[in-house]
Amino acid sequence: MTNEAKCIILVGYMCAGKTTVGKALAKKMGRTFYDLDWYIEERFHSKVPKIFAEQGEERFRDLERRMLHEAAEFENIVLSCGGGTPCFFDNMEYMNQVAETYYLKATPETICSHLKISKGERPLLKGKSPEELYEFVSQQLQERSQFYEKAQHIIDVNVLDNFDKIDFVVDEILKIRGLKD
Ligand code: S3P
Predict the structure, then answer these.
(1) What is the pTM of this model?
(2) What is the C-alpha separation between 137 and 34, in angstroms, rounded?
(3) What is the 14 CA–ligand 1 centroid distance (Å)?
(4) Domains along the sequence of the chain with CATH
């Protein structure tokens, strides 16, 4: 595969804006957008929260790794991963080998403000009060950062406080790519 066609992968914590930015980036580049959670759901005819509830997180992580290996091989796509994808197995090393990787970096404050308006169901965050949520997100982000930071590029997405700013983040990525090509 040529470097030009390599899959672009977005990593980062839940609700950092991976899907939103990924869709906009794909559109602007004329690429197809994939979301790894949706890909898993389509391939296994089951929703992520259901897989977690019925088969457990370990099984989900195994499916996630296998589906990552399928999707990341596609050419000319933008793929947004689940928040946990880079933190299991050698997934982050694998992504860096086969794709171009971007960490969408957000603070716990930004993530919690996005979570308030997000409609997606997230098994790891279910049933938490706003205070518990902030505590959990801060702690887990700290643990996960070491994996996310291995991405080839880091993009600050704390500007993503409203939807006008999506283009700003997309342009940041395009600028990096322009410098590279
Ligand atoms: C997870 C993030 C979710 C989904 C699953 C687990 C995580 O994806 O894969 O609920 O461990 O951070 P999003 O980051 O797209 O919400």
Answers:
(1) 0.95
(2) 25
(3) 6
(4) 7-168 (3.40.50.300)
